Amino acid sequence: MSPVEVSVVIPVYNEEDGLQALFDRLYPALDGLGESYEVIFINDGSVDRSAQLLAAQFHKRPDVTRVVLFNGNFGQHMAILAGFEHTRGKIVITLDADLQNPPEEIPRLVETMRAGHDYVGTIRRQRNDTAFRRYASRAMNGLRERITKIRMTDQGCMLRAYDRNVIDTINACREVNTFIPALAYTFASNPVEIEVGHEQRHAGESKYSVYQLIRLNFDLVTGFSIVPLQWFSAIGTVLSLLSGVLFVVLLVRRFVLGSEVQGVFTLFAMNFFLIGILLFGVGLLGEYVGRIYQEVRDRPRYRIKAVLEADPVRTGVES
Ligand code: UDP
Ligand code: MG
């Protein structure tokens, strides 16, 4: 079991139309590095021909290819985590399978890592996504930075490089819902960001619906910070103080002016507003309780059906 310099981790979910194009660009780019490397594909329970295509590629380049086959669809981040457990490179790079991240950028990432950084994040130079996605992610970025103190200019781009130490620390984490770039950022001591190209999806469609994107962002915020809960206590405190003042004012008015019945609708409006805040708080609390539930349940995060590899790294197939 010889260590290699660079490991590339690629999650694959129903990407049959784009995989060949990926192989055609990825391997030459890596061969051009002039260093030892390995590519780890994780088939995240694709229901198309992706698994067969990956197996064929494994048989073509068994020296540098390893394929982890999941038993079902566990999501992009779980796929990457499984990939991490199978890496042995000093530098680990993640990449999307849809060719939105040009493989030709890998040498620059490696170079930046060699300059002494232990984490290289990326900013998409010209982002090829819909205007809505661009706008929504900018708004979310701002909010996330405020809440979690994790400064990622571009959280969506998965073309990133991680140092072995960071990967080992991530491998030791057992979180169920996580966001890998943010996790890595937490552990890195000398992170940096560089600009990279971004292309249109080579084939197929984005696997993320708007709902999933919202979920992902919720996970990102509640998974890395309890600031929302603290904000909530603060709001509760302010509201209690205000109601206390209101109570005193009404009491005084009762004695000075006698009984008053005006302002019923104002009262309704205030009530609805407060109930709204209350429900939001219950929901927010639920997010954290749900997280705790998932963690204590302690189920395996994913199941691996098989690993195609010429030179086994480990025997455990579950995490
Ligand atoms: N992916 C995955 N499991 C999923 C969804 C996506 O492994 O459940 C992979 C997908 O094959 C791709 C990467 O994650 O390699 C990013 O997915 P996608 O391009 O659909 O996301 P977007 O670029 O729209 O954010
Ligand atoms: Mg994509």
UniProtKB/TrEMBL annotation:
GO terms for biological process: lipopolysaccharide biosynthetic process. It holds the Pfam family Glycos_transf_2. One of its GO terms (molecular function) is undecaprenyl-phosphate 4-deoxy-4-formamido-L-arabinose transferase activity. Residues 7-168 form the Glycosyltransferase 2-like domain. The keyword Transferase applies. Keywords: Cell membrane, Glycosyltransferase, Lipopolysaccharide biosynthesis, Membrane, Transferase, Transmembrane, Transmembrane helix. One of its GO terms (cellular component) is plasma membrane. It comes from the Bacteria. The chain crosses the membrane at residues 231-252, 264-285. Its EC number is 2.7.8.-. This is Undecaprenyl-phosphate 4-deoxy-4-formamido-L-arabinose transferase ((Ara4FN transferase)).
